[in-house]
Amino acid sequence: MTFIIADRVKETSTSTGTGDITLAGAMTGFSAFSARCAVGDTLYYAIQAVDAGGTPTGEWECGLGTYSAANTLTRTTVTSSSSSDEAVSFEAGTKQVFISMPAVQVAAAVESVITLVVSDETTALTTGAGKMTVRTPFAMTLTAVRASVNAAPTGSLLTVDINEAGTSILSTKLTIDDSEKTSTTATAAVVISDPELSDDAEVSVDVDTVGSTFAGAGLKVYLIGRKLNAFGIRAAYAIFGYGTTGGTNAVSTTNLVSSAGVVVADTTGVGSIRYGLAAAGYGVGRAIFGYGYNATNGQMSTTNLVSNTGVVAADTTGVGSVRIYRAAAGYGTDKAIFGYGSFTSTTNLVSNTGVVAADTTGVGTARRQLAAAGYGADKAIFGYGYNDDVYINVSMTNLVSNTGVVAADTTGVGTARYNLAAAGYGTDKAIFGYGTTGGTSAVSMTNLVSNTGVVVADTTGVGTARHGIAAASIGTGKAIFGYGATGDGTNAVSMTNLVSNTGVVAADTTGVGTARSLLAAASIGA
Q: What is the 3-state secondary structure (H, E, C) of 178-221?
């Protein structure tokens, strides 16, 4: 799948209603979509209805579309239209369909710079917190931060920190070296640990150190980034949610994760407390938690939608069979699938608006406590788990097509285990990791998955061996494993392990928030 920007692509269509648009051929002087797009490519589109003389009738629509099949345009996300910005139910007659960048996206694509004037031009700087405070005028993803001075510090370097709501967003702070006027030449390059700034966020600047001979004067700090666009797209971040702190002590707590893998403190839970649930991304930048077990209600099919800013919605009445220990993954670029679980191989598709479909008859070996992830840009894979029929751990996998069709079992590779996790990495590959081979035997080995769905043999584990863990994609091609339990399942932990965009797992990062296992995680915001 590729995002397509192309000039002079325009076809006619006679499609009606709110569904897919069948493209009927290029207009004179223009190219057909098929000349520029492969199946699965995405693009920005515009559609206008015209009369017999080619004059617009007033029906029109703009949005994000998918070239979903030969000569077929799927209207994935509508951004504006003549029907109150909803999908237009086109009447009979001719339509003109073309690639066109919507105005809201053009505005969002331009980098914005917010300049923070921290001091006057001549007064020597002093150290201290909160030297100046502002609020961001819109949600943005930082691509860079800089600092400059009118008069250089001498004797030692100047160190500056930037905070959102009192918490630093830098893991390596801004510095201006001795006798320099800009941070761009600093020996130690700044590192942004949390690039996501919310709309109306309180941003403050601290001065940690100043020059020892002359402090420096005329400090400015620059926030450089892109405004959150109309589709909710920003650097991918993630959410961990729900789980158990031990036994049946279920929680609904969530923890957001920045695109750099920094886990945020607990957010008070929303919806039914439960464990043994699953989660996946759907739509554009959104996610869904679903199913699981509640000590009072038993197995559930309840779901909770998550916005592209990480806000969890109240319970949605469940669809399909109630069950526990399912797995879920995104597929088809904007949809999701829940699958398998206790004593079944049944699946449930999720639309790009978060609507869960009725049960689909299962394919492959029924099993529970397995994992799933997206791979190959628009497909998914279920793998591993525990088979109740023969009481053994398994390692088989089942591929899912970009239309949500589950394939028969593929012979397993690597150590058979359950209560593991999986996530996409490297934009089109996946990784299975951690889990248990039974009893208290937690493991930390991983198995990479190619962009064609081929699972690789075990890679020696890194970090604390644990099970009941969760994982999600973050940033650009990276992933994070987090939480879980060691030993017999009562020893819940909250540490995390980052995965590079080449599939290399990093050592443990100290945990944040409530330690728990049998939770779920999904990517949001991208």
A: CCCCEHHHCCCCCEECCCEECCCCEEEEEEEECCCCECCECCEE
Residue 260 has pLDDT above 80, yes or no: no
Q: Hey, which residues does 480 pair with through a beta bridge?
A: 472, 498
Q: How far apart are CA 33 and CA 70, in angstroms?
A: 9
Token representation of residue 133? 């405070």
Q: How confident is the model at residue 232 (pLDDT cuts 50, 70, 90)?
A: very low
Q: Are 95 and 88 a contacting pair, CB within 8 Å?
A: no
pTM over 0.70: no
Backbone φ, ψ for residue 340 (5° rounding)? 65, -150
Q: Which two tokens stand for residue 493?
A: 């932990």
Report how far residue 491's alpha carbon sits from residue 105's, in angstroms, rounded to the nearest whole number: 47
Using DSSP's 3-state secondary structure scheme, residue 291 falls into: strand
Whole-angstrom Cα distance, residue 346 to residue 192?
Answer: 43
Burial class of residue 268 in the structure, from the number of CB atoms within 10 Å of its CB (0-12 exposed, 13-18 middle, 19+ buried): exposed
For 147-189, write each residue's pLDDT tens digit. Answer: 999 999 999 999 999 999 999 999 899 999 999 999 999 999 9
Cα(396)–Cα(202) distance, integer angstroms: 49
Which residues make Cβ contacts (< 8 Å) with residue 169, sequence separation at least 6? 142, 162, 163, 192, 193, 194, 195, 197
The kind and range of the H/E element at 331 are: strand 327-331
Q: Is the dihedral of CA 320, 325, 327, 328 positive or negative?
A: positive
Please name the residues in contact with 500: beta carbons below 8 A apart, sequence gap of 6 or more.
425, 478, 506
Cβ atoms of 141 and 233 within 8 Å: the answer is no
Asked whether the beta carbons of 384 and 432 are under 8 A apart, the reply is yes
* Contact yes or no for 383/432 (Cβ under 8 A): yes
CB 499 within 8 A of CB 480: yes
Cβ–Cβ contacts within 10 Å for residue 401, how many? 14
Is residue 299 within 8 A of residue 316, CB to CB? The reply is no
Taking 70 as the threshold, does the pLDDT of residue 120 lie above it? yes
Question: 237-524: which CATH topology?
Answer: Neuraminidase (2.120.10)
Start-end of H helices in 98-208:
103-109
Residue 434 in contact with residue 466, Cβ under 8 Å?
A: yes
Query: Which has more confidence, 353 or 382?
Result: 382
Q: Where in the chain are the domains?
A: 3-101, 108-227, 237-524
For 65-86, give one letter per residue: b (16+ CB within 10 A) or e. bbbbeeebbbbbbbbbbeeeee
User: Domain 108-227 adopts which CATH fold?
Assistant: Jelly Rolls (2.60.120)
Q: Are 373 and 424 in contact (CB under 8 A)?
A: yes
SS3 readout for 74-87: EEEEEEEECCCCCC
